[in-house]
Amino acid sequence: MVGLLKYTIMFKPLSTRQLKTFSSNEKVRIMVKIEALADNLSGDIKRLTNFMPEYRLKVGDYRVLF
Question: What's the pTM?
Fold first, then answer.
């Protein structure tokens, strides 16, 4: 049986500052989705073409790039 991959989540300083500008409800919703990425990259993920970073996670009206 293959185990689940576990990823480490690290934030850039700019993303931390931007996250502080959101309401409490938005922060919680976004952080729950980001934390779910650590467990085998689950969520509404799409690979981007001709763009860096290569992936995006959709959280409501927001996009988390990684």
Answer: 0.79
Q: What is the pLDDT of residues 17-64, one digit of tens each?
A: 999 999 999 999 999 999 888 887 888 899 999 888 899 999 999 999
Pick from 51, 52, 58, 12: which is nearest to 34 by CA?
58
Q: Who contacts 9 (Cβ-Cβ below 8 Å, separation ≥6)?
A: 34, 35, 37, 38
Sequence-separated contacts (24+) of 48-52 with Cβ below 8 Å: none
Cis peptide leading into 53, omega within 30 of 0? yes
What number of residues does the chain have? 66
